[in-house]
Amino acid sequence: MSAQRTIAKVVRAIEQAEGAGARVRRSIGTRSQRNFSPFLMLDHFSTTAGFPDHPHRGQETITYLLDGVVDHEDFAGNSGTLYSGDLQFMTAGRGIIHAEMPRKHDDGRPNVGLQLWVDLPKELKYCEPRYRDLRAAEIPSVTVDEGRATIKVISGQSHGVDSVKELAYTPVWLLDFLLRPGAKVTQALPQGWNAFAYVLDGNVVVGEGAEAKKVEQYDNVFFKQEGDVIHLSTEASATKEARVCTFVIAGTPLDQPVVQYGPFVLNSEEEVMKTFSDFQSHENGFERAKNWRSKIGDRVY
Length: 301
Prior knowledge:
This protein has a single domain, classed as Sandwich (Jelly Rolls). Helices cover 4% and strands 48% of the residues. The protein has one helix and 26 strands. The strands form six sheets. Strands 1-22-19-24-17-14-13 form a seven-stranded antiparallel β-sheet, with no helix packed on it. It has a seven-stranded antiparallel β-sheet with strand order 2-3-4-11-6-9-12, with no helix packed on it. The longest helix has 13 residues, at 269-281. The relative contact order is 0.21.
């Protein structure tokens, strides 16, 4: 018999300024939810402004572009473009400086997406930086509940469908649920994994029976570790589709301290101070930062 996971807490994403005039809704990395190992931050962005040249060390970022076009460039000579439905998995490792700048659309619509920061295990904090892109056309999907629910299996497993490949050092499942009116979905999860479900759009009922709770757009639902399934549903009378992204960590949370200062995530204050020194002196991973400026970071609309 499967046991459903119960809700530990629900956090509403708070809108705040970030980057060069961008606005994001943050539900992990706030006072209400500092982190949720190994997850460090979740931003839901909807913006025409961007994120000019900035550094990272010690974490991975997953960017899921829901609508729009975003260019990226780093000090190692990597560059590329994400389009609607694409994802980028970036490992900062020992150090990287990059820029992420959206393009302007003729109709004035914003670029919309999610960015998740994932902690790296202590032994990988100083690995070499790397990128992996996943294009929308590469993502398998499955339709269930007589056509009322469609799930994009970006990473992980759902209803007999496996994702195409592992994309992050820290194994993470990422499933994108489109729930039409009257949909009911049961998603299996291994016991002991940390899991949360973020509501991109619409209203969703999470859980069944006495544990059922209706949540709304911009709510992030954090589950307790006990249990091996979650239930998601929409009311038959709903006037619009609902969209839910569920992130699941493969394995137990990282058993390590988290010391974060802005874009640097290490395991001690001494490492953070050393990172500032390395960044300012262009050493130990930041050598290529000296005299480097991206071509896209000064883009202004």
